[in-house]
Amino acid sequence: MERAFLVGAPRKGTADATKVDEHLDELRRLADTAGAEVVGRTYQRLEAPTPNLYLGQGKAEELKGILQEAGSTLVLFDEPLSPVQGSNLEKTLAVRVMDRTEVILDIFATRARSAEAKMQVELAQLEYLLPRLTRMWTHLSRIRGGIGLRGPGETQLETDRRAIRRKISILKKRLEDVADHRANQRRGRRDLPSAALVGYTNAGKSSLLRALSGDDIFVEDRLFATLDTLTREVDVGGGYRFRLTDTVGFIRKLPHHLVASFRATLEEARAADLLLHVIDASHPGWEEQVDVVETVLDEMGLYERGSGERGAVPTDRKRTVHVFNKADLLPDPAEFLARVRERYPHAVLASSIPHSAFRTPHLGGVEGLRSTLRTSAQALRPVARIRIPVENGKLLAALHRDSEVLAESQMDGVVEVTARVEAWLLGKLRREGVSVEIGS
Question: pLDDT tens for residues 105-123?
Fold first, then answer.
């Protein structure tokens, strides 16, 4: 097992000591998930990273001695390193050096299960590797020119670059095909309202899906336990069902190319009627985690952040319900809910702990979330009484095909249909001059 030493290098004025510790704690959890044993940590506040080592020269020399005493075989940086910084640090410290992005990519590579997830991870790895190929070829720098020896390293380097660019192009095309296939699958599914579970990694999205559906879904108290999307139909009561999809979690400083690689998977969130933003209510830095997720959703075009100071309520492009999970770990759930509803008026408290076992039953379990989904289903597909002339068979067929018919009767040449109907179909019926009455 690798013996990892953690290094943080925050900019001066960007984070207090508590925040730095939280960030290094998260890096420790990443190291644990990757299978490394953490033997120590340190950090240095910088005005700006140095071009050669990121750290100052004195700090790098001091760190080398600390690593030797700790018996460390690996250094993990919480900040992104350029190819030059990574190479120079390995030479100075005489151990392998990885930045946060490399650790995340390594975790993704070991946790990918489906062919799609493996392609997404491989694409992200290749895009990360491409600008760093020179670092891999430094051992060829000793070769000098001469007959038969002119530039073999550079030639091989360019050959590798072309091969990687070609592979990246192939993977992007395959993932586009996957996205098209998913779109076709969605069109072929039974017509139900849908929601995507999004949120910070380890916020408990999979646990909530398991609690709502009753299915045996893999859950682990580690970062990035879920990489593949998983969809289940859930009974939310009142005769309504919801289609819920679990998605990959986000994390602070998530590499942009990694987000881009997982766009095919995250299309499920784009296609959903509703986003369930799952938040670990027990985490001391949950507000920062919310900001991270909202930023990524904004980059995907799913969420438009509000202007103004931090903490302002954002404006949704897609309706979002903020689900504060792990409520069983809160000292005073009622007080917490009252506080967060000042910012998120429709916030819901939830816990994967069974409803009956929670010390404040009306605030625990998933019944509050189930009720919210039921209300959303009623809004997305209201029950309507529709009167169609019996001779208009085409419109009747469309109503049976595109809605959930609950009852039907015929009188005086008019068919009265009671059905759950989506808003777009209600609009179409009204444009056709059909009598539509919304009711329970």
Answer: 888 888 777 787 788 888 8
CATH classification for the domain delimited by 191-379, as one of 3.30.1330.60, 2.40.110.10, 1.20.910.10, 3.40.50.300 = 3.40.50.300
- At the topology level, CATH places domain 3-107 in Rossmann fold (3.40.50)
At 370, the pLDDT band (50, 70, 90 cuts) reads very high
pLDDT value at residue 398: 84
* Predicted TM-score of the model (pTM): 0.78
pLDDT beyond 90 at 226: no
Query: d(Cα 198, Cα 294) in Å, to the nearest integer?
Result: 10
CATH topology of domain 382-438: Alpha-Beta Plaits (3.30.70)
Does residue 29 surpass a pLDDT of 50? Answer: yes
Please tell me the predicted confidence (pLDDT) of residue 136: 52
Same fold, 3-107 and 191-379: yes
Domain positions in the chain are: 3-107, 112-179, 191-379, 382-438
Cβ contact 305:317 at 8 Å: no
Mean pLDDT of 203-214: 89
3-state SS of the chain is CCEEEEEECCECCCCCHHHHHHHHHHHHHHHHHHCCEEEEEEECCECCCECCCECCHHHHHHHHHHHHHHCCCEEEECCCCCHHHHHHHHHHHCCEEEEHHHHHHHHHHHHCCCHHHHHHHHHHHHHHHHHHHHHHCHHHHHCCCCCCCCCHHHHHHHHHHHHHHHHHHHHHHHHHHHHHHHHHHHHHCCCCCEEEEEEECCCCHHHHHHHHHCCCCCCCCCCCCCCCCEEEEEEEECCEEEEEEECCCECCCCCHHHHHHCHHHHHHHHHCCEEEEEEECCCCCHHHHHHHHHHHHHHCCCEECCCCCCCCCCEECCCEEEEEECHHHCCCHHHHHHHHCCCCCCCEECCCCCHHHCCCHHHCCCHHHHHHHHHHHHHHCCEEEEEEECCCHHHHHHHHHHCEEEEEEEECCEEEEEEECCHHHHHHHHHCCCEEEECC
Question: Of residues 391 and 139, which shows the higher confidence score?
Answer: 391
Token pair of 58 as six digits: 């004195």
The predicted structure's pLDDT at residue 371: 92
